[in-house]
Every structure is written in structure tokens, then in C-alpha cells.
Amino acid sequence: MKDLGFSISQSRTIDLDKSDLSAYRRVVEKVPSAKLCLMCGACTATCTARNHTDFNFRKVHLLFRRGQFEGLAEELDKCMLCGKCRLVCNRGVNTRAIIYNMRIILENLNYKSIK
Amino acid sequence: MMNYHPFVIPFTVGALFLFGVVFYKFYAWIAALDRKQKFMVKQNIFSFKTIRAIGEIFREALVHRNIYRKNPVLGYMHMSLAFGWFLLIVVGKIKASLYAGTFFEPPWLGIFFNFFAVDGHAFSHSEMLTFTMDFLLLIILSGLALAIIKRVKSSLLGMRKTTKHSRFDRIALSSLWFIFPLRLMAESTTASLHGNGGFLTNSVGHLIPSTIAPYAELPLWWAYSISLFVFFVALPYSRYMHIPTEVVLIFLRNWGADTGEQLSGYTDIQLNSCSRCGICIDACQLNFAAGISNVQSVYFVRDARYKTLSDEVVNNCLMCGRCSNECPVGLELTLVRQQFRNKQEIPGKFYYEYTEPVESKAGVDVIYYAGCMTHLTPSIIISMKKIFEAAGVNYWFMDEDKGVCCGRPLRQQGFIQQSKNLVIKNSRIINSARAKLLVTSCPICYKSFREEYNLNLPVMHHTEYIEGLLADGRITLNASNVTVVYHDPCELGRGANIYEQPRNILRNFSLIESNYEKENSLCCGGSLSDAILDLRLQLKIRDHALGELTKDKPDVLVTACPLCKKSFVHGNKARVMDIAEIVAGNLKVIASKKRPVRKEELQLV
After folding, report:
1. Which residues contact B291 (CB under 8 A, 6 or more apart)?
2. What single string gives the DSSP state of each residue in B14-44?
3. Strands, DSSP E only, in B301-457?
4. What is the pLDDT of residue B566?
5. What spatial distance separates the first Cα and last Cα of chain A, rounded to whole Å?
6. Does residue B3 sit in helix, strand or coil?
7. With pLDDT > 90 as the criterion, what percentage of chain B qualifies?
8. Domain B366-467, architecture per CATH
């Protein structure tokens, strides 16, 4: 078959009734502005890490929101927390704080604060 | 037994308990100093620095010159209580020793002297000493009156907000308030019976009816002793622990102990040296511009000490350093807060392996690192390029395309290991270029390069660099009478002590001063360090700062940080420019290199 550079996506279902949505609720509690995100992708366009990889704030945000956590912790580790995304966000979402809190929740043990 | 009465027992027990607990705590903290701090102590303990420390203890712990400078009434209040009580103990001891004829009289004799010395048996200088004791007591009581006024209405003493106290503090505070009035009453009652008082106690004694005095004398001395007992027992667990701890802190600081990256005994010493005066509350922009008054350093230190720290208190901070600057004890509050933000590391994990290696360009004199934030304010980059060209500098723009972050934003959020990974990546690129100078446009990167990196070349922020170019005559500016106000970015001013360089550059314009200059400068609110602050409140901080800075209606508000510029630009109050922009806009263009002038620049020239 001729390679057209794209293929048919596998069909998949995201059953929100079976997903764990509590983690995202915890993020929203910490960063209420998360609800304002309309997934425009301005953050991704300016991202320092995106310049090197396929790291995508919009994508990790959406996956986390739906409770699809596989491989997400490693993906989040690509972020350098530089904060550019927060400054370009036209909705005033504290994207950096969202990443910070998602990291803390996903790698709870690893990222425990020393107290 | 002579010179003994059962009422001295509470005092003696309390004092023994106090010394036991304080010395145990000191031992534990000093044992928990990290290796570097212990080394500094060993290195400097027998040096001139120890003598300097003793001088500082006298100046700061007893007289507290620092508080005097900030608020004379508060300074008097502290001095009358601290220095007054200290002298009362010293003079009391001298008096007791002279009376008993030996240096080794019982320790309570000096404290309860007037009760025991009623036989009128004279000793040398007794009148002068009695006068001194009464005078000191009067001074202390006047300080106490101020303290009570401060608690009831802090604004009378020039403080907008005073600290809310914990239970132990309240117990200690109440007993402290009782000690001196009770001492006055007890001494006066004895004076009315035996006439052994000074000008103050005799006069008050005359007011006490002679029918009551014999029955009131002993209960009053008991009450005085018990209030001392309560104060001594509560002291190690209350804010008054700062009295003994500050002495240790001053010694360690003079010996060169460094707060360091991880928690150590020195952290505990700093936490316990906080007197909870609350000066940091008034200094904090979260308080006076955003109305948050439960996360300030005083509460952070208190919660950290009692191990009740919440995430909000640790993380809701702009890390601007205004509180450390105001702190009369000189605590490194921002660094201590940073220690509590630090996360446990995942051993051996290496992050950011994905970044593509940047080939460093050989044979250049200057490396220019703009920084992530500067890429959001391209006008700064354009201006810097223009300045480099005008000065004929052979430079390399290191992060023009695939740059990585300097690592400081990660560090401020406590991800030390990840931050170090980025430091290694950038160091490799910078060091292999073998250039002569690294110039950066972002104060965050600048501080990071200076403190975290081990580079083979000096680092300059562009304010320093441009100042040097102007001083060497490599670039010259057109005369201009544009009025400018300079805003000191936190990381560049309080963070890296760069105050004069930008002002030297701006002398080419008409520089006007705001009310928030240098160490007192405000944060723009855009700080990356606060991952909690709501956007609405952040904008409140920005608008307050912007309002203060543009009070005198300057033509341009100049700053030296892309983040500050970005914050202020959206406030729409004044034209905001980075210092590189205003310099580039006024460069004296050499005829051969003439280029079309942009419209905005014309307004400035």
C-alpha cells in the first residue's frame, strides 16, 4: 500500500464513568483557573520543551482531565517549569501551577516535600 | 537559713528548667549543623570574628539598633525590656554580692533582694545602687506600657498589622506582663513596711495603706516568683526562645555559616530566632496589595517551628525578598522557605535527555543568553542585537533557537535534581565555547548563572554590560530629556545587589525617583515562585506597584527584567521599556551605519 504519511486511527472509547476524575478535581481545587482553559494551544506554541520534543501542555492537560494516566508522569517530567506558557495564556490560566500540581499528584511519593 | 524563704522555689525551679531545656536545644542544633557549617565554625571560632560577633550581640540583641532605625518607638520598647532587664539582673547581682559580702551568694538573692535586705545594714554604694534599680524598673515599666498599647492598638506604634499569637505565646506574654508590675508592688509593699526602697518603690509604698501592707507582702512576693516560673517554663516553647537563640545565630553568622540548600541545625536556629515582631507582615505585598495575611514569613517561621506547615504557607510566596530585607533579626527568610520547598530526589534519575545538543560556536568574545522570558519580549532581543552591533562585539546568541531553561524556576519550586540536570546541560555548552563573557537579559537566569553554575567565564546582566560599554565609550547615547522611573527587579536588586549600574545608564535621561527605590522596590506580581496566587490577586499586586511607580507621571517606566516588563505592559498605565530598549532607541548612530528610525523611537529622541 502506498505510504501517505498517515493512517487510520484505531477506534477507542473513553468511558468517563469508569475514569478516575478525582485527581483532576484536586488540581482544580489548587488551581481554580484550570477550568478556564479552552485548549487553544497557545501554551504549546511557546513551550521551551516543545521546541525539543513533542511535549504538549494541551495534551497532558486533557489526558489528566479524563483520568488517562499511563505514561503521563514521564511526559510531565519533560517540562522545565519555565513559565512561558502562563504568560501567553489568553485566559489567565496558571498553566505552570497545573503542571506542578499534576506532578505532585502523579508522583506523590517521589515528589514529597521534605518537612 | 539566712536569705531563704519558700517563695524562691518557683523561681529557682523555673530557672533550672529553662537552662536545661535551652542548653539541650542548643546542643541538638549545633550537632545538626551540616558539614560546611561545622567547618566554618571550626575555622573562625578563634578569630577576630568572634569579637565582632560579641559587639553585634550587644548592639542587636540588647539595644536592637536595627529596630530603632526602622521604628524608634518600637526600638525603645524592645530596648527598655531587653537591655533594661539585662541591667536589672546585672545590677541586682552586684548589689546582692556586695550585701552578702561574697560573689557566691544564692542566685535568688539578687532577684528578691528587697525582701531579704530589710535590716538596714549598709554596704558600699547602696544608695546609688538602689536608685539605679528603681530607675531601671521604671524604664522597663514604660516599655511594658508601650507593649500593651501595641497589642491593643498597633497603629499607635506605627505598625499596620501585628502578629496573631499561639497559645504558648499568650501564656508567656501574659506572665511577662505580670512580672514587672508584681515586682514593683512587692518591692513597694516591703518598702512601706521597712523603708528600704528607692525613689520609685518608696513613693509607691507610701500609697499602700499600712493596714494592708503586712498581709499583702508575702502574697505579692509569691506572685512575683510564680510569674517568673511561668515565664521561664513557657519561654523555650514560645516566641521568647528568640532571646537565647539570637545570640547563637549572631555567632554562627559571623563565623560564616551559610543557610545552604537542605535543612540543617542552622535552619532550626534561624526559625527559633524569630521574635514574631510582625515587621515582615507590613513589608509583604501579599498583605498590603492583595489582602492575604496568613502566609507571611512570621507565620511560615512559626508553623515550620511547630511542624504544622501547610502547602499554602510554604508555596504562597512571591520570594521577592522584601521581608528578609526588613527583618530586624536578619533572618534569611527566602532561603529558609526555599529549603522547605525542596523535594526528595529520585536517586540516579536523569531528566531532559531529550534536549538536542547545541553546538557551541568557537572564537567568539561574548555569549548572549536571552532566557525563556526574553523570548516573549522580542523587543529586548532586537535591542540587544543592535547594541552588540553598534559596539562591534563578536558575539554568539546561544539560545536563539533550541535553548533550554536555566533551571532556576524548577529550583524555586523545589525540584533541585531536575534543576541541576539543566545546569549541567547549559554549563557544557557555555564552557566549551571558551568565550570571555556571558551576557544574559533575564535576572532570573543571571542569578542562576552566578550562584548555581560553575562557569569558566564571568557573567553579566545586560545592565552591567551596557554600563561598561557606555563607560568605555564603545557606544554613546543621544542627549535626551525623557523622564524615566526605574523599577528594580527583585532578582536583580535584592537578589544580586545590582542597583547602581542601571541608574548610571539612566543618568543619560532625566531620572526621577519613586518611593520604592533599591532595597525597598516592589515586586511586579509576575514572580514565577508563587504557584498558588490567583491571577486576580496577582493583577492587584501589579496594579498597586504600577500605581506607585507612575505617581509622578514619567514618560517611560524602565525596568531590566522581561518578566517585570511583561507584567507592567499589560497594566496600560505607562509606556514600559526594558533598559536595553531605551538604550538601543537612543544610540548615537554613526553616519555610515544610518538606518531608518522607527516611529516610537522618534518620540523618545
Report:
1. B537, B540
2. HHHHHHHHHHHHHHHHHHT--HHHHHHHHHH
3. 366-369, 395-397, 437-440
4. 92
5. 60
6. coil
7. 52
8. 3-Layer(aba) Sandwich (3.40)
Nearest by Cα to A110 from A76, A87, A80, A83: A76
Structure-model confidence comparison of residues B104 and B444, the more confident one: B444
Q: What is the dihedral angle through the alpha carbons of A78, A81, A85, A87, rounded to the nearest 10 degrees? A: -170
CB-neighbour burial class of residue B37 (10 A; exposed 0-12, middle 13-18, buried 19+) = buried
Mean predicted confidence (pLDDT) in B516-523: 92
Q: Is B263 on the interface with A (CB under 8 A)?
A: yes
Please judge whether A83 and B342 are an interchain contact, meaning their C-beta atoms are less than 8 angstroms apart. Answer: no
Cross-chain residue pair B372–A33, CB shorter than 8 Å = no
C-alpha B265/C-alpha B257 separation (Å) is: 11
Q: State the cell numbers at B284.
A: 509583604
Output the CA angle B354-B357-B359, nearest 5 degrees.
Answer: 170
DSSP codes, chain A: ----S--PPPP----TTTS--HHHHHHHHH-GGGGG-----HHHHH-TTTTTS---HHHHHHHHHHT--TTHHHHHTT-----HHHHH-TT---HHHHHHHHHHHHTTTTTPBP-
Q: How far apart are CA B267 and CA B249, in angstroms?
A: 10
B528, B444 contact by CB (below 8 A): yes
pTM: predicted TM-score of the whole model, two decimal places = 0.87
- Cα B21 from Cα B121, distance rounded (Å): 39
Taking CB atoms and an 8 Å cutoff, what residues of chain A touch B346? 110
pLDDT digits 0-9 by tens, B19-35: 999 999 999 999 999 99
Residues in A closer than 8 angstroms to B417, CB to CB, are none
Q: B405 and A80: CB-CB below 8 Å?
A: yes
Which of B316, B121, B605 is closest to A94 using CA atoms? Answer: B316
Is there a contact between A80 and B263 if contact means CB atoms under 8 Å apart? no
Q: Is the pLDDT of residue B605 over 50?
A: no
For B332-350, the pLDDT digits (tens) are: 999 999 999 988 777 778 8
Residues pairing with B511 in the sheet:
B484
Pairing verdict, β B459-461 and B510-512 = unpaired
Domain at B252-341, CATH from 1.10.510.10, 3.20.20.70, 1.10.1060.10, 3.40.1000.70: 1.10.1060.10
pLDDT above 80: residue B388 = yes
Write out the three cell numbers for B12.
Answer: 529557682
- Candidates B535, B537, B539: best to mutate against A (most CBs of A within 10 A) is B535
pLDDT digits (tens, 9 = 90+) for B260-288: 888 899 999 999 999 888 889 999 999 99
Write out pLDDT tens, residues B146-180: 988 888 877 766 666 677 777 778 888 889 899 99
CATH 1.10.1060.10, chain B: domain bounds: 252-341
Amino acid letter, B118: V
B223 — contact with chain A (CB < 8 Å)? no
Measured between beta carbons, the chain A residues lying within 8 angstroms of B342 are 113-114
| CB crowding B60-80: b at 16 or more within 10 Å, else e | bbbbbebbbeebebbbbbbbb
CATH architecture of B477-604: 3-Layer(aba) Sandwich (3.40)
Mutate to test the interface with A, among B405, B425, B539 (most CBs of A within 10 A): B405
Confidence class of residue B592 from pLDDT cuts 50, 70 and 90?
A: very low
